Amino acid sequence: MKDDPAAKTDEKKERPVLWAGRLAEKPSAGAFAFEASLDVDKRLAQDDIRGSRAHAAMLGKQGIIPPETAAALDAELERISREFEAGVPDGSAEDIHSLIEGLLTERLGDQGRMLHAGRSRNDQVVLDFRLYLKRAIPEIRLCIAEAAGTLLAIAEKHAESVMPGYTHLQRAQPVTLGHHLCAWAAGLIRDGGRFASALERLDECPLGSGALAGSGLPLDREAVSRSLGFARPVLNSMDAVADRDFVLETASASAITMVHLSRFCEDLVIWSSEEFGFIEFGESWSTGSSIMPQKKNPDFAELVRGKAGRTTGALVTLFILLKGLPYAYDRDLQEDKEALFGSLDTLRSCLAIFSGMMGSASFRKDRMEAACTGGFLEATDAAEYLVRRGVPFRRAHETAALIVRDCLAAGQKRIAERGLDELRARSPLFGEDIYAALSPAASVAARSLPGGPAPAEVRRQIGIMREALKDFL
Ligand code: ARG
Questions:
Q1: Which of 425, 431, 423 is nearest to 379 (CA)?
Q2: pLDDT tens by residue, 132-154
Q3: Is residue 92 within 6 Å of ligand 1 at its C-beta?
Q4: Using CA atoms, how far apart are residues 272 and 275, in angstroms rounded to an integer?
Q5: Which of 168, 209, 260, 349 is catalytic?
Q6: Closest ligand 1 atom to 37 CA
C-alpha cells in the first residue's frame, strides 16, 4: 500500500483549514479524516448559511465591514445556498463552516475573509445546531401528532370493544380497546410536550459569544437574535459555547418517545400471536418466513421495539460525552451531533412506520371479548357489588375470592355460572341483578369515573386529546 498512487495524491491534496496560520505542518490524511466532521454536519449547511447571512448583515449595519461587502457576502451566500440544494459537495473541508467560508474566500477574496469577524466556530456550531432543532422539533411533533391521531381514530371506533386489561401480563379487568389506545396516545402527547418545552429553552441565540469570551467588536447581539427568529440571545457567552443541555433534553425526549413506541409494539407483537389473536396487520405491514410457509410475522413492530436501543444509547453517549468536560468549549462536543441526529432519524422513521402499521391494522372483537371470559376478570365487580351494599371492601374481596375458588372446584369458568343460592351461601346480599353486573360490557360501563374505560368517558378523553393535538400543528 506504500506506493499506492491514490494515497499519495490524497496526501498532497489541499485541505483548506481555518487555522492554517499558526501551524506549519498539517495532519496526515488519516488524522484529518479522523477530526473532520463534514459528513455529519453537512446537514447543517442551510442553517450555517442563514446564520452567516444574519451575521454579515449585522457586521455591515454596525460598520464593522463595508456595506458593499455585506451585500456581496449576502448574495454569494444565497448562491451557495441554492447550489447546496442539489447536495453539499463532499469536499475535503474539515467541517461545514470551513467549507462555506472557503467557498466565499475563493469567490470573493478579502471580502470573504471579512465574514468571520467577531465569530468563532464555537458559537457558530451551536447556532447551527439550535437553528436545525428549531426546524426539526416541530416536524417531529407533527409525526407524533399523526401517530397519536391514528390511535385516537381507532380508539373512537373501538370505544365499546371490550378486551382484557392486563397487569403482570395476566388478565386483570375488562377494559376496551379504545381505553387501551387512549393510554398510548396520552403518552405520545406528553412526548410532544417534552419536545416543545426543550424547544422553548433552546430558543436562544449564541452568536456574539465568540470562542467563549464574546468579542471586543461592536456586535449587535439583539439584532442578530431577532433576525434569526430567536426569543433572545444566550445570556452568558461561556454557557453559550460550552453547554449542551439542550441536546440532552432533546435526546431525552426522543429516547422517552421511543421507549413508548417500544412498549406499544411489545403489546402489538403479543396481540398478533395466534394465542391472543386480537390484531391483524395489513399484508403489506407483515413479513413472511423464508422457511415456514404459514408465517405472518409482525417484524415492523419488532424492529420499532428493537430500535429503541439506539435512542437510549444516544442519550447515554451524550451524558458520558458531557460528564467531566471542563468549561468552556472542548472538541469532544463535536460528537454531540452524530448522536442526536441518529436519535432523531430513528424516531422519525419509527413514528412513520408505527402510524402506517396501526392504520393498516384490524382488530378481532370476537377474540378480545372471548378473552374477557374465563379468567374471572369479573371478580372485582362482584366485590364492588357487595361494597355498594355496605360490605367492607376487605371482606367483599375475600368473599369474591372464595367464590372464584368455588368456581374452580366445580370446573366453572365464570362467576355467572354459579346459581343464586350458591352465591348467597357466600353472601346473602347477592340478588338476581348480580348477573347483569358481571358481563364485560356492564363491568366496563360501571367504571365511568374520569380516566376510566366506560365508552362515554373514553370518548371524552379522545375529545380532550384531540384538542391537545391542535397545539402540535
Ligand atoms: N466541528 C466543531 C464542532 O462540531 C466545530 C467547532 C470547532 N471549533 C474548534 N475550536 N475546533 O464542535
A1: 423
A2: 999 999 999 999 999 999 999 99
A3: no
A4: 8
A5: 168
A6: 1
Q: How far apart are CA 285 and CA 307, in angstroms?
A: 17
> Which residue, 169, 178, 152, is CA-closest to 363?
178
Distance CA 330, CA 323 (A): 12
> Where residue 288 falls among pLDDT bands split at 50, 70, 90?
confident
Q: What cell numbers appear for 100 in the block?
A: 462555506
Q: Measure the N-to-C terminal CA separation of the chain; round to a whole number of Å.
A: 56
Atom 3 of ligand 1, residue of closest alpha carbon: 334
pLDDT of residue 5: 42
Catalytic residue among 28, 197, 284, 289: 289
Rounded mean pLDDT of 264-288?
91
Q: Which residue's C-alpha comes closest to atom 1 of ligand 1?
A: 334
Q: What is the pTM of this model?
A: 0.92
What domains appear along the chain, each with residue ranges and CATH number?
5-117 (1.10.275.10), 122-366 (1.20.200.10), 379-472 (1.10.40.30)
Select from 122, 212, 321 the residue to mutate for testing ligand 1; criterion: most ligand atoms less than 8 Å from CB. Answer: 122
Ramachandran angles phi, psi of 269, nearest 5°: -60, -45
Proportion of the chain above pLDDT 90, given as a percent: 88
Residue type, 81: S
Task: Give the tens place of pLDDT for each residue, 216-269.
Answer: 999 999 999 999 999 999 999 999 999 999 999 999 999 999 999 999 999 999
- Does residue 35 contact residue 46 with C-beta atoms inside 8 Å? no
Q: Is-catalytic flag, 97?
A: no
Of 17-31, 54-68, 216-230, 408-422, least confident by mean pLDDT is: 17-31
Residue 267 host element (H or E): helix 245-271
All residues at 6 or more sequence positions from 96 whose CB lies less than 8 Å from its CB, including other chains: 37, 38, 41, 42, 44, 45, 48, 88, 128
Quick check: is 284 catalytic? no
Q: Ligand 1 centroid vs 297 CA: distance in angstroms?
A: 46
